[in-house]
Design brief:
It is a multi-pass membrane protein. The protein is mainly α. The protein folds into two domains: 107 residues, no CATH class; 149 residues, MetI-like (MetI-like fold, Orthogonal Bundle). It is built from eleven helices and no strands.
Amino acid sequence: MTLGWVLLVVPLLIAVGGPLVAGETGSVAAPLLPPGPGHPLGTDVLGRDGLAVILSGGFPVLGLTVAALVLAYLAGVPLGLFAAARRGLADEAVMRTLDLVLAFPSLLVLMVLAATGHRGPLVLVLAVAVVQLPAVTRLVRAAALAPGCRVAVEALYLQGQTWWRVQLGYVARHIAGPVVTDAGTRLGLVLYLLASANFLGLGLPSDATDWAVVIERNTGALYSQPSIVLVPAGLLMALCAGTNLVADQVLARRRVRS
């Protein structure tokens, strides 16, 4: 098993299987105790066992991240293909509308939602997906407008192929590489936005065991109780790095076979 797969599988296994063995995640001792008997990773600012919190906190952040990414690409890929295929007025309408969304900083959007009382996991997922939509659409459009792709598309149209068959049968396969690569790198950005949103109180409650929330809540104790911050941060870093490495390996094998 390669390094990329190890970095990806370990956080996934902890996120999925951890809640089954986590045990009690309520306050069980004094806050910020160092690692010791009964608490291998010490306790957090709420007096919860660090190991139990980390074992139970991976699934929420993983679920929110995957949901936001899936929504962004489910909307962005068809929009990008449509803009590239139609061009002209339709292309301008799609891209200029998305430029308006792109003009607003992501954190500003999240702060406005938090200030206006729009909170909860569903709002958070939708907000993060929307702010990622312009970048995803631009990437898909640019890949679909690449010279090599356009020549093949025009040849397929001349052969009498339907629009849907050309777009889904050829163009979608052509842009798969850039989309997968972008998704791997965008994972880290989405995690950052989710952590920031939770810190603002937009998504999960402040006492949630979510890794991003735990890191934000315990940042002040980095020097006195570093394990409660560094362990979940390391798992998130491993997840991002592993995703990128595995995506690169899959794309490399795909290029060799083709």
